[in-house]
Amino acid sequence: MADPRGFLEVRERVTVPKRPVSVRIMDYKEVAQRQDAGVLKKQAGRCMDCGVPFCHNGCPLGNLIPEWNSLVHQGRMEEAAERLHATNNFPEFTGRLCPAPCESSCVLGINQPAVTIKQVEVEIADTLIASGGLEPVLAVRHTDKRIAVIGSGPAGLAAAQQLTRAGHTVAVYERDAKPGGLLRYGIPDFKMGKDVLDTRLAQMEAEGTVFRTGVSVGTDIEFAALNRLYDAVIVATGATVPRDLPVPGRDLSGVHFAMEYLVESNQVIAGEREALRIDAAGKHVVILGGGDTGADCLGTAIRQGAASVTTLAIGAQPPTERPGHQPWPMSPTLFEVQSAHEEGGERTYLAATVNFTGTHERVMGVTVAETEFTNGQRLPKPGTERVIPADLVFLALGFTGPERAGLMEQANTEFDDRGSVARDGYYKTNTPGVYAAGDAGRGQSLIVWAIAEGRSCAAAVDKYLMGETRLPAPVAPTDRAISML
User: Fold this and answer.
1) CATH classification of 146-240+400-466, choosing from 3.90.1150.10, 3.40.50.1220, 3.40.50.300, 3.50.50.60?
2) How do the domains of the chain map onto residue ranges?
3) DSSP string of 61-109?
4) Which of 72, 273, 422, 461 is deepest in the core (most CB within 10 A)?
5) What CATH number labels 6-130?
6) 280/309 Cα distance (integer angstroms)
7) What is the mean pLDDT of residues 441-451?
8) Domain Dihydroprymidine dehydrogenase, which positions (predicted)?
9) Distance from chain centroid for Cα 318
10) Is the pTM of this model over 0.85?
11) What backbone phi and psi angles, to 5 degrees, belong to 172?
């Protein structure tokens, strides 16, 4: 236990400090700042090492949260980093990007604000990196097995690192110019700087993982060639097919999928593209979808100098406190204020998009109506239509599954009724030697689930190739823990 009187002495929950809004909207540097070491120690000390730590159940990775909280409270940061990395390959990613279901399950949350688990996690990781302690973990033995990982998002990276450390030869195929997937091209720098990603990739390369970028599997290299070259293949392409909105005016110029916008912006900031094709400067922007992707579009549009930004959500505004039908330790649906929401823009709820209006084939407005429940469905309420001016519209409505063209057609891989790659409880697809991990098989989900699935899939592949494995397997695709030993 970190402190026998932890939350009794320190009742206040102190979250991550942020740069002032007026300063941070002028650049794309990370909004969050490092937390003072003394404050961090006190916040970690609020964790009471509960007899039944429900935070473990809330975390798909099974992070040893009470253990590293106690070590942080004692000032033993190096040991805390060892505990953290025992279950999580990339805590510097999850500490920045995960919505922290562990905090919803924190026992302290019954009658007090939960422990700042996510903040402690990222500080452990950042302290290790700043001290130069993120050294390569080299395999103690090497096998003659070769594995291809398709996709370099969090699931693919986790699987690749685990299998490299197990002694296999691993090549990660990425169609973009640099590895990282949506971590690089979908997440704005103000949420996670790309130096954080590059530091971890450098560690992986030093360990022996090979990255083959600019290679589209199914086009630049056929799946049959992968089968000849490798003993196993892991599909970790993510769920990248965006959900569309087929309403009148959808084909007007100026209506874009959110990822078109975010990827292009990240490429320009990184110097991979000279100029913006989709620029919000001086324009009225409307974002459909109130989730993380919508917030990323909001923060980006504000930094580009948009005249106004309106975010539309079809559902009701969530409550600010845990509702009765989602009692602890469930993960409640609550009204969330992300850093981008602090910077400006208007949020509108119960708004159904009726159509997009415009002239000369260019969007000029979004017709919305209030929604009401009719026959169990949320439908537009007649007579409540209004037009919101819009020069740019971004569809941030989620994703329907992985892309099927090329790779899946050549591999004859089956899909389930949700549009994801079909697999069994050990991540195997119907194609011998082919496995699927992360959003490609699970559907759109959280980064922490992607890493957990990548680790588990690596254990399954290791056992398939070697007959046994010592790699940990946090979860099965069915969300139930499985033993791979």
Assistant:
1) 3.50.50.60
2) 6-130, 146-240+400-466, 244-397
3) T---HHHHHHHHHTT-HHHHHHHHHTT-S-HHHHHHH---HHHHT-GGG
4) 461
5) 1.10.1060.10
6) 9
7) 96
8) 25-129
9) 21
10) yes
11) -105, 125
Q: Tell me the CB-side half-sphere exposure of residue 389, using CA atoms within 13 A.
A: 7
Number of continuous H segments (helices) and E segments (strands) in the chain: 19, 16
Quote the CA–CA distance of 13 and 45 in Å, as a whole number.
11
Contacts of 370 (CB under 8 A, 6+ apart): 350, 351, 352, 380, 381, 384
Distant-in-sequence, close-in-space partners of 102: CB < 8 Å, separation ≥ 6: 55, 56, 58, 59, 63, 65, 117, 118
How do residues 151-161 score in pLDDT, each as one tens digit?
999 999 999 99
Give which of 408, 403, 483, 399 is closest to 446, Cα–Cα.
Answer: 399
CA distances from 11 to 44, 119, 268 (A): 12, 16, 44
Q: Say how far residue 262 (Cα) sits from the centre of its chain.
A: 14
- Which residue, chain included where needed, has tokens 């056992």? 463
CATH fold match for the domains 146-240+400-466 and 244-397 = yes
- Which has the closest alpha carbon to 466: 153, 145, 180, 182? 145
More confident residue, 411 or 267: 267
- 476 and 436 Cβ atoms separated by less than 8 Å: no
Rounded CA-CA distance 358/373 in Å is: 29
Count CB-CB contacts under 10 A for residue 297.
Answer: 31
Q: Which residue type occupies 300?
A: T
Q: Are 219 and 135 in contact (CB under 8 A)?
A: no
* Residue labelled with tokens 């919000």: 280
